[in-house]
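User: Second chain of the day. Same drill as before.
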Amino acid sequence: KTTATAKITSLKSSKLAGMPKHKLDKLLQKIGRPAYQILPIENKTNETLAKEQLLTASKFGGDPYFEAGEQWPICGKCENAESFICQLDLRQAKDAQLPNSFGLLTFFYCFQCFPWDAPQPGWTARNYPQADIAKAVCIEKPPPKQVGFFKKLFAKNNASENSKVTLVEFKSFICYPQLDELDEIAEGLAPEFKSLQAEVEESGKEDFCDIYYKTIEQSGQDSDNFGTIIGGYSQWIQCFPPDLKCKHCQSWMRQLVQLGSEKKLDIMFGDAGCIYLSICDEHPQETSMMLQCF
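Assistant: Same format as last time:
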């Protein structure tokens, strides 16, 4: 069983033999966060569960969970219905150290307007702390008004995009930050990393960045870094955004969910991109969204 203090496998590379690896191992154990990789279950679809059970299941596609009085999310820019991407029961991610206020999370996105960050309309994340089959209702998706440029570009078939459902499984692992994020958010540990970095680079044997990621790789972390992840650290495709701070208290926000492109499921955010949903622990009701792609 993976724990927050997962043992870092000893490095055997001759290139790293002169490096004070025990120091890096110790630091990594301090910053590792429990997370969950979300993996589509092949050949397990809507035939596995009853329709009522599917409404509350963690899944990509299918009918989203709604409760009485709600409406299907509409894009504030093009006024078309947003596409349902997935829903994830965050109550299953018990070790991800998320606020207790999170339950079933549903996410919608407008492929016509293609929003890149939170201020832009065209995305919706809804949280149901007490989601239950008894509360679930089905709402039909409104027909499209018109097909926009991005919809055509990425070949989204509006007639069928909501019909296929794929269930998922949660796989726990220990997640580590990218170095540029570590420089920003780990204020208490930054001096230790800086000192170790200087010690390594003075030896002239190898770049600290290479050593950092090799150590993580050899720790047994086998997650798809740009897949779908609950908790942990965001695996930024471009770079860590320096303005990822809560608008209320200016604290650094942390990852709630990373949604990766799922080619087999016809879910593609730009060029194999990811959507990052971030929260502030002090103000978890505020959710930030950002998209990055290759």
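The two ends are 34 Å apart (CA to CA).

User: Great, on to the next one.
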